[in-house]
Amino acid sequence: MTEALLSIENLHVSYRGKGRSAHILDGVNLTINRGKSVGLVGESGSGKSTIAFALLGLLADNATVETDSARFDDRILRLDPKGTASLRGTDIAMIFQDPMTALNPMFTIGEQLVDIQRRRFPKSSKRQLWQRGEAVLADVGVQDAAGRMHRYPHEFSGGMRQRVVIAMALLVEPKLLIADEPTTALDATIEAQVVEVLHEMRQRTKVSMLIVSHSMGLIAELCDSVVVMYAGTVVETGPVREVLHNPRHPYTQALLACEIDPNAPFDATQDLSTIPGNVPDLTNRPDGCIFAARCPSRQVQCHQKPPQREVDHGHHYACWREAA
Ligand SMILES: Nc1ncnc2c1ncn2[C@@H]1O[C@H](COP(=O)(O)OP(=O)(O)OP(=O)(O)O)[C@@H](O)[C@H]1O
Ligand SMILES: [Mg+2]
Q1: Is-contact 3 33, C-beta < 8 A?
Q2: For ligand 1, is residue 215 a contact (CB within 6 Å)?
Q3: Nearest by Cα to 320 from 11, 286, 308, 239
Q4: Which end of the chain has fewer CB atoms < 10 Å from its terminal CB, N or C?
């Protein structure tokens, strides 16, 4: 068994539009080790959800996906609906931004917690699955879980619904849990509580996680390492504390400068503010460094593709400046 649960090399995704196509992910590498948690951070539109959906083989029909190598749990992973079908909802579970998208308003929470487990545990009785459902619901901090099992989604508050969705994901005992902006639909206090639930689950189970977020604070709280994305390119990656305390890429530095004090406790209200300038036109990607047009440290070489530099073991950034 390799240390890596998931490894993707050189992932490219383009979306075809009328007469032209947008090259959204440009050569993304992503590794998630067993039992580890990786954060994916970047501005809106940087391609974070595209990565999450590509892993689930669930990109829109107009997407073209190419990769040099994709492996999950020591097997080749085909990043299309068929290739991922047997993993979705079993080995790989996903938590979406809006919990209502994952819940059916017509069924009680108990029925949905039972249903989600059927594929994973086909031999268990309904009674066993119900009991497991109730136990995990209590684990994620839902009070009176036994009574709550008989209630419908609309009878839950937003934060409670997101706990239910986390319970659903955990009930299938996935090897990889993908959470795409799991707290942005929630208010700040509830957000902090949901982060706490994920944090506890991470410590208690061996699940690997991919946490997608705008917020470096949330990633610092939940992840071992971070992948910083800018316009579909990985600009920096490394252990979360390393990147927070010693960011090397000018984009990561800008992102942190407008965000948080990494030593402060997690504050859910903190988020990225704007970095001057605009994201490049992805239907016509520039040849050189993708961040050059907005970079305060731009220099002449930046119109060529920057080299990958290693700061320390596992900490890399793509930039022409050696000590950016
Ligand atoms: N089906 C599609 N067809 C064309 N373009 C798309 C499609 N889906 C996404 N895009 C574009 O791909 C880019 C990346 O989108 P993606 O949703 O992955 O970004 P994101 O980083 O998750 O952003 P956010 O933080 O807002 O969720 C965006 O420019 C988006 O408009
Ligand atoms: Mg997204």
Answers
A1: yes
A2: no
A3: 308
A4: N
Nearest-angstrom CA–CA distance, 4 and 36? 9
Q: Is residue 242 part of a domain?
A: yes
Q: Is the CB of 84 under 6 A from ligand 1?
A: no
CA of 135 to the centre of ligand 1 (A): 37
The tokens describing 65, both together, are 């996906």
Q: Whose CA is nearest to atom 1 of ligand 1?
A: 60
Provide the number of structural domains found in the chain. 1
Which of the four pLDDT bands, split at 50, 70 and 90, describes residue 242? Answer: very high
Q: What is the CATH number of the domain that holds 179?
A: 3.40.50.300
What's the residue count for the chain? 324
The domain containing residue 16 runs over which residues?
A: 4-91+174-318
Q: From residue 191, how far is each of 30, 33, 76, 235, 269 by CA, in Å?
A: 27, 26, 36, 28, 9
User: Residues 174-204: pLDDT tens digits?
Assistant: 999 999 988 876 777 777 888 888 888 888 8
Helix, strand, coil abundance in the chain, percent, nearest 5:
35, 25, 45
> Does residue 256 lie within any of the structural domains?
yes
How far is 16 from 135, CA to CA, in rounded Å?
Answer: 45
Q: Is 118 a member of any domain?
A: no
Nearest protein Cα to ligand 1, atom 31? 45
State how far the Cα of 263 lies from the Cα of 246, in Å rounded to an integer. Answer: 13
Q: Ligand 2 (ion): which residues have CB within 5 A?
A: 49
